[in-house]
Amino acid sequence: MRSADVARSVTVAALVAGLLYVAWLLRDVVLLAVLAGFVAVALSAPVAVIQRRLRLPRAAAILLVYVLIASFLVAIGLLIVPPFVTEVEHLLRALPRYVRELEDSALIARWDKQYDLIGKLQSQADRLPSLVGGAVTELETVTVGALERIVELVAVLAVAFLLLLDAPRLLNFVFEQLLPEERREQARRVAQQSASAVGGYVAGVFAVAALAGLVSFFVMTILGIPYAVPLAALMALFAIVPLVGSVVGAAAIAFVAAFSGVETAVAWIVFFVIYQQCETHIIGPFVYRRAVDMRPVLVILAVLAGATLLGVLGALLAIPAAATIQIAVREWWALRQARRAEAAPGEPAPADAMPPGAAPADAS
């Protein structure tokens, strides 16, 4: 290898390492940019439909989509918040009764005899005055964190607005100026399929979450589980997280159902197990296959990988990211096979170019 090639390779490696280091230092900004891109891609389809149907300027179409989403959230809030607040007040008023039931429980008495629960709780209560200062500090931290999340949300929506506004020009620049002519059509196809997959995934996730909340509400009403409205809202919120979110919501409902009787809690658990099986094997695969055309095993692996890297946010973004990668790989494979066919016209396709289990066309 010539010294010039070695120097070029070292320079490229150094540049890549430097860019990765800068990206790590700016990881919060990069994450916000990724979220803004995800929001922009998810909203690109409704923005295009509104712009085409109403013949609005693109900026006005984006603002209208934002207003419609905000109005929908406000309407849901007006329907849920009043009964939510009322039932939370009832829950707070019922807490002393629940505590008395725990104190009178034979199981708690047996645990207290074995582990001195009452004594430990009393010792913690004696320390309560000294913990107030720490609680105030924690409250301040939580408040500051909430404000930071609000600022980040505004930043994500603002960047997404700009991305949506400039999307046609940016895409045309990338396709027409940065890509060779033979790759442009393929790149446009990948971009369109990825946008469709992300939009379908977002719609599917919210549909599954809403279904989980509604079904949970009706079942809790039938079983007589109190505080059905806030618990159903909690179930829908947790169900947004793929695979594991609904389990957390169901556990909270089972805890509340236990105060209505062991048989009520058991009935809820039985229902949830059946519903989770339907969601895992029927509803979920149907939604993900229609939206992103992914096998259930790939969905599970993508969610696990995303959750390991970025927690809950990674679990939410994992499926559309994996779908985009799958679309790009399929297009690359199709192009590769097309080039092989052009290089050897009239010859049978090689074995690795055929689908698994397929036979040559001239096979008897």
Automatic annotation (TrEMBL):
What is the protein name given in its UniProt record? AI-2E family transporter
- Give the family this protein belongs to, as stated in its UniProt record: Belongs to the autoinducer-2 exporter (AI-2E) (TC 2.A.86) family.
Keyword Oxidoreductase assigned: no
Q: Which Pfam families match?
A: AI-2E_transport
Q: Which UniProt keywords apply?
A: Cell membrane, Membrane, Transmembrane, Transmembrane helix, Transport
Stretches for region Disordered: 344-364
Q: Where in the cell is it found?
A: Cell membrane
Q: Which residues cross the membrane?
A: 7-24, 30-50, 62-85, 153-175, 196-219, 225-245, 252-276, 296-329
Membrane topology type, per the record? Multi-pass membrane protein
Species for this entry = Conexibacter stalactiti
